[in-house]
Amino acid sequence: MTADDLLxxxxxxxxxxxxxxxxxxxxxxxxxxxxxxxxxxxxxxQAGMFQRxxxxxxxxxxxxxxEALVIAERLVQLGVPASILILETAATNTGENVLLGRxxxxxxxxxxxxDSLLVIGKVCAMRRYLMTLARHWPEPRLSxxxxxxxxxxxxxxxxxxxxxxxxxxxFGKIPGYIEQGFLREIAALxxxxxxxxxx
Length: 199
What we know:
This protein is an alpha/beta fold. Helices cover 41% and strands 16% of the residues. The protein has helices at 3-13, 34-46, 67-78, 94-108, 126-136, 161-179, and strands at residues 22-28, 50-56, 85-88, 116-122, 141-147.
């Protein structure tokens, strides 16, 4: 795998889609880097980047407490008003994050009020989040804030064992997910690149 291959993979999996002020923030739940997620999200709220915040994530990894509840508790501790939060506490995968999260928004504030989403999620999975939204909730304009909790810049992802494994894992599974109908490609963000096989 060449340096150019690494760059093409990074550009595809971690697409630049700068955060824009949006009617709704959509935080994809996680058990990894929770404090980094919450600090970044608090800063986005302070900057006026979203009016309401959907946090989606159910019990995962053997933990009975929903990811959304863990994250919401920390956000409120940091100063994010509980009144702006919409919590979806059942999702166990990205498709459910979007489908159940969308349903929760529909029943609380109405989908007709959502014209833009600020997607907040792991830097190594941002492409999959965006493609899942393109498949199941395509109407709003999307922008993104990628949370990098790996301790080194995203362009050096291949130097960090876990970061590298996660990026290459995402890159490897996206074609199959598209074939199964879980994702929709986003042409504006570039096509899936052909690269040499990973060592």
